[in-house]
Amino acid sequence: MLRNWLQIQPATPNGIVIQEPLDFQASVIRNQIWYRGEAAELEQLYKQLGAQDSTNASRFWAAVPANAMKLRKIHSGLPAILVDTLAYLVKSDMDDVAFKDNCGEAEWKAITEELDFQDTVGQGVAGALKAADGAWKISIDITVSQYPIVEFYEADRVEYIQSRGRVIGVKFWSDHSDGYKVYRLCEEYGKGYVSYALYDGTSEVPLDRIPELAELKPVAFDGDFMMAVPFKVFESAKFPGRGKALYESKLDSFDALDEVISQWWDAMRAGRVKKYIPRDLLPVDPKTGNLLPLNDFGSEYITTESLTDENGVSRIDTIQPEIRYEAFLSSYTAALDMCLQGVVSPATLGIDVGKMSSAEAQREKKDVTGYTRNTITGVLEKVLPQLVSTILMVNDLMQGRAPGNYEPSVGFGEYGAPSFDSRVETVNRAAAANTMSIETQVDELWGNSKDDGWKTGEVARIKQLRGIETVDGPPAVGDELA
Description:
Blueprint lengths: L1 H5 L17 H13 L2 H12 L3 H4 L2 H4 L14 H15 L5 E2 L5 H8 L4 H14 L3 E6 L9 E6 L3 E6 L2 E13 L2 E10 L2 E8 L2 E3 L13 E2 L7 E4 L2 E2 L7 E2 L6 H20 L3 E5 L23 E3 L12 E3 L5 H16 L18 H40 L9 E2 L10 H13 L5 H9 L5 H14 L17
Parallel strand pairs: 13-14
Antiparallel strand pairs: 1-16, 2-3, 2-10, 4-5, 5-6, 6-7, 7-8, 7-9, 11-12, 13-15
Helix pairs in contact: 6-8, 9-10, 12-13, 13-14
């Protein structure tokens, strides 16, 4: 009734067509180039992307003229710093792997004597954060090791086989060359099997095209599991089933930060002292009388005409241009803030922003790093037990045993735990107030970094230094009759 009274006409359905600028593989390559942090590579990338659409053509790395030889193009290196810092925070806080009923603990200890599991996890975290996702591949090669070999393949070399939103297989791609010809090897890892295929472009060719691959044969093994473990931290909104890089939605902010830094230092270079020298006072080589060569640092000057009147005196004028450092600093701070929002706190990266906000605001920003770190560890607490179980089951196959049933667990320490200095101060205050025993003091101070035997010896040493002696009490009544 209301519509008829106001004479409102229903909206006409409109079709909107939006073309994605890059597919998944191209997005991964772009993310990895940002992580590599080479200014020359970034310029080449965006000049090629700028030839395809106007949006990329307007970005700093594409808009800078190629013939601007004296324009210094600076990359901040922030994407790599973000990824490496978070990967270090995660892997350094990882606790030892625990097993239910100690099942598999001895085998795992033997495997980790050769396998650096912490470094393996760190490579996976860094690879997933910088590329988008990836997968750990567990393979067998007795000519290299008697234990399973664990490698992490990043998103550009991984393809997921999915069914109803679940990964049921993983394809690992690698390049192999025979002379000047490059082939791509596809290793398909599924539940209970591993198969191989070699491609020349889009055409499959025999494996013996590459001599070292001629012995590869399809493999079937016991057990309902894959010898591969997919891993992604963030879900992609553009590519269903695939991951998203840590800084994928921040690339425009990184581009703006690089532009601010480059303009800032270019202004400093252009703002050097300018010398206006009359022609008759130009510096010459005292031996040859030729003019000295110019350069941008030190001897650059501007030539003026010599005075011709009889009362004129030639002189050298020096002018210092004004550089608006406050404006550049404000722009730099704003761009940096955009890059770090929702990812990490500036304090985590060692950036001193105390003058820009209050101490309370900085403490709140510190929580951002904890949120990002907890997101990563939350995924790892589900994925790493699966990785450990897979490694142990592959080890069982290598030893000629049926794959066992393992229940490992992996935990992570508390981020932002007090430093050793603050723990010492707190424990000393409690000890001075006689509210904490020596045993508790040692346990609180050292935690899990020392074993129980060391802690017991430390308690005895502290008591000895304090003059506390432990003696047996008097015998109880009736003990002499025992």
